[in-house]
Amino acid sequence: MSATMTAGFVQAAEEGESHFPPGPDDFWQPLFPMFELSGHTYYFTRPMALTLIAAVALSVLMILASRRAALVPGKGQWVLETVYNFVRNDIARDMIGSRDFLRFVPFLFALFTFILLNNLFGVIPPFQNPPMARIGFPIALTLIVYLVYHWIGFRKRGFVGYFKVMVPPGLPVFVRPVILILEAMTFFITRPLTLALRLFGNMFGGHILLVVFIVGGWELFIATELQYKLVAIPAWGLGVALTAFEMLVQVLQAYVFVLLAASYISDAVADEH
Amino acid sequence: MTGDVTLIGYGLSAIGPGIAVGLIFAAYINGVARQPEAQGALQRIAILGFVLAEALAIFGLVFFLLAYFTG
């Protein structure tokens, strides 16, 4: 819940109209107009600013940390190395296999840290808006993953070979086309769709939940009757508890996104069965 | 009573994934209880299964939003 949004809600409440059930419209937060194209004004929005901050902050942090890398790591280097080792060993090596994983580690590490920081912006006080709650951002990330794993698959096996590997061997001839269609749908439609929607849905739903309890608590608090004012306190308490839960979900979703990206890549580089 | 009937649809669509996620973690807990050293391997499989089941609930949410805001 952003400071500006809260101020807006308070103002709206003072004017007598309620913003209370929050909806997708509350995630549309333009900062300033950028340009006009065929009669439609395109705005620079708050999620865009947040992703920019995340990219710059991560780049600076990683460059500084790797420049100052010492044989005996300090605290900061230790944390970064733990994250890096987690992505390298527990995601990339376990999913892709020890032969091919190394060249995908930079990609997966960048994805993981970028998504993690963007998700955590949902609860870090001055930002408090998860950019991934706007569907465009998960789609962009998914598009990168989509291009990477198909590019690798097609380059490794050739056009026909890539489709061949989708059908497991030993099936009766008349079942093969059905399996091919189903598997091709999984590869080209279901996987990117679920990858993008999962990240979007979790961030969007989780943030709405926080807004419901915190703004709802405020709406109860400014009510005239005393009993409503008292209910505001457990509502805010739940808001705090759900913030902790939301942090768990944010870390889990960053992990899951990269885990699935690695598993799709591993399908593309795996040996034929 | 006022409201949107698509929301009931979303509620119904969340039942299946809810049961599925419960079953997946029940199996995971069982597996770890029987063989604690397999926790690392089981955890990854459990989370993979969990996100695949959860995707259905997310579909429900997105289709609800689509139906609610376009139709």
Produce a short descriptive summary.
The complex is a heterodimer of chains A (273) and B (71). With 273 residues, chain A is mainly alpha-helical. Chain A has one domain (44-269).
Description:
- The complex is a heterodimer of chains A (273) and B (71).
- Chain A has 273 residues and is mainly alpha-helical.
- Chain A contains 7 helices and 2 strands; from the N terminus they run αββαααααα.
- The longest helix of chain A is centred in the C-terminal third of the chain and has 46 residues.
- The radius of gyration of chain A is 23 Å and the shape is globular.
- The N and C termini of chain A lie far apart (50 Å).
- With 71 residues, chain B is mainly α.
- Chain B has a single domain, classed as F1F0 ATP synthase subunit C (F1FO ATP Synthase, Up-down Bundle).
- Classes of the chains: A mainly alpha (273), B mainly alpha (71).
- Chains A and B meet through helix 6 and helix 7 of A and helix 2 of B.
Helix content of chain B: over 70%
Named at the architecture level, the CATH assignment of chain B is: Up-down Bundle
Tell me the number of strands of chain B: 0
Number of domains of chain A: 1
Tell me the domain tally of chain B.
1
Mean pLDDT of chain B: 88
CATH topology title of chain B? F1FO ATP Synthase
Largest sheet entry of chain A: 2 strands, antiparallel
Nearest-angstrom radius of gyration of chain A? 23 Å
What does the largest sheet of chain B look like? none
Q: Biggest interface between protein chains, with counts per chain? A: A-B, 17 and 14 residues
Tally the helices of chain B: 2
Radius of gyration of chain B, whole Å:
16 Å
The side-by-side strand order for the widest beta sheet of chain A comes to 1-2
Overall outline of chain B? elongated
